[in-house]
Design goal:
Strand content: under 5%
Distance between the termini: 46 Å
Shape: globular
Order of helices and strands: HHHHHHHHH
Largest sheet: none
Number of helices: 9
């Protein structure tokens, strides 16, 4: 029953305009209203993402305004999910930053805008890397040599003993994929440090 109620609530919520959804989110996050049990927060984020991208491809200013509003909903919900689900936080933040990059490529960058601020993506890239560039380069080279050797037994041994290092490198590669996508924007001018990291992408496992 709770799941049906939550599903119906989400369907009704998504029939509203984005400003009404934003108002509802503010009320909920101010703990002034309860959310139905088993409410599908990820569903809200994903539908909002789809709408933001779809409206961004239309020509009218009204559609672009709606696109930004849905993008703001999606990114705020992804970040809410990341904060409340630490085990999946990287995945949710990747979704949030990917959408930001997509919308920036469509509309350009605006500093301090909740969606269009390029530095939100750049700062996120550097947050919690837990590894220096030089260390990442050494480990990436080592991993590539192991994988290129195509020795399943040695590869498995390396995974068993260095799985955490591999995960760190994949985290960096996933984040760099978004940075590389963002680099298509004329508003994105990476500094020397970021360019150095970008050059590492193809070397990462």
């Amino acid at each position: 029953m709770a799941e049906t109620e939550a599903t119906n609530f989400l369907r009704v919520l998504l029939q509203k305009d984005p400003e009404q959804v934003q108002t509802w989110l503010r009320i909920v996050w101010a703990e002034q209203q309860q959310v139905p049990e088993k409410f599908n927060w990820l569903g809200l984020a994903e539908v909002s993402t789809f709408r933001a991208q779809e409206l961004a491809n239309e020509e009218s200013n009204e559609s672009h305004s709606e696109s930004l509003a849905w993008a703001e909903i999606a990114t705020s919900v992804y970040e809410f999910l990341a904060e409340n689900n630490p085990s999946f936080s990287e995945r949710y933040l990747n979704s949030s930053m990917t959408l930001r990059a997509y919308i920036i490529l469509k509309f350009g960058a605006i500093p301090e805008n909740p969606v269009l601020d390029i530095y939100m993506i750049i700062n996120w890239f550097f947050d919690n890397l837990h590894i220096s560039y030089q260390e990442a380069l050494i480990k990436a080279t080592d991993w590539r040599e192991t994988l290129a050797a195509k020795n399943p037994e040695e590869t498995q041994k390396k995974f068993d003993s260095e799985l955490e290092d591999f995960r760190k490198l994949r985290l960096i590669k996933n984040r760099l994929s978004i940075i590389k996508y963002l680099s298509k924007s004329k508003d994105f001018v990476p500094n020397e440090e970021l360019n150095t990291w970008i050059s590492l992408w193809e070397k990462l496992p």
